[in-house]
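Q: For a teaching handout, I want to show students what a protein-ligand complex looks like in token form. Below are the inputs, and the small molecule is zinc ion. Please produce the holo structure.
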Amino acid sequence: MQAQVLISEVGPRDGLQSVKATMPTANKLAWIDALHAAGLREIEVGSFVPARLLPQMADVAEVVRHARSLRGLTVMALVPNLRGAQAAVAAGVHKITLPVSASEAHSLANVRKTRAQMVDEVRQIVALRNELAPHVHVEAGLSTAFGCTLQGVVPEDDVVRLAVALAEAGADDIGLSDTTGMANPAQVRRLFSRVRAEIGAHTGAAHLHNTRGLGLANCLAAYDVGVRTFDSSQGGLGGCPYAPGASGNVVTEDLVFMFEAMGLPTGVDLEKLVHARTALQAGLPGEPIYGMTPEAGLTKGFVYADGRSPAHERLPATAAGART
Ligand code: ZN
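A: Here is the structure, written as tokens, with zinc ion included.
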């Protein structure tokens, strides 16, 4: 059975760049291998930013090179600007994702550019892609689309207008990101619907965080209005340092469990996915990871959406939070 939802694993980028420690390259490669072995078919493997700003990502070109050898995997990387896009294309990524702030205040603070300047940047990246690497997919992710810690409320009209401008600039798809974990399901439903009404099939992924425990509810709301690509990270890696115990991204394990239990195939094997936590923890000893399904295990009599039964009744135990 074909996967009906695409889980885009962002842990090696969103997760690793928000923890203090730097995962050694060999561990990153082993972790990405394990994620791929679990059935994930799109992984954001890093970001092309100057190493002095984000030393955790200094090895991104090497990571891309390795990830390209994994069969059927879409290798994605974040780029902040044209220069990053040039490096990403040279390294051989399949997909570029560029964050564009929906909040003007966040845009200026984060990349020292206005939103209009970022739309221009996307236009130049699309031109570069068209000339050098027409097969590369260009995604723009509208960060702070659901609220901003600097500006507070982000008007929905601003988000819709920016999505239209980015589609006109040539981005293949435009996703919405709850960078700050402020979204609620009604808002997710409304905003994705409004964006889809304007840009149709260019509507991209839902990138939702679990800061206030609404990550899965927000994913389901997005699913209900037609979203089929979801960003998440293994173990919810990327917890906010100012909210102890609160995870960052939606937890991939829980998201896969939700869709599979609903009868929607993801192509991901939960046992192998939980096993991949071992590789993550080997590379980041002591870093807290989250997830309810890995703690509770699969439900008795669980079957995957494609009718397959799990190989074992219990999920593999992991080092931290091992179940007893
Ligand atoms: Zn994020």
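A: Two things your students might notice: The domain at 6-296 is CATH 3.20.20.70 (TIM Barrel). Confidence is low (pLDDT under 50) at residues 319-324.
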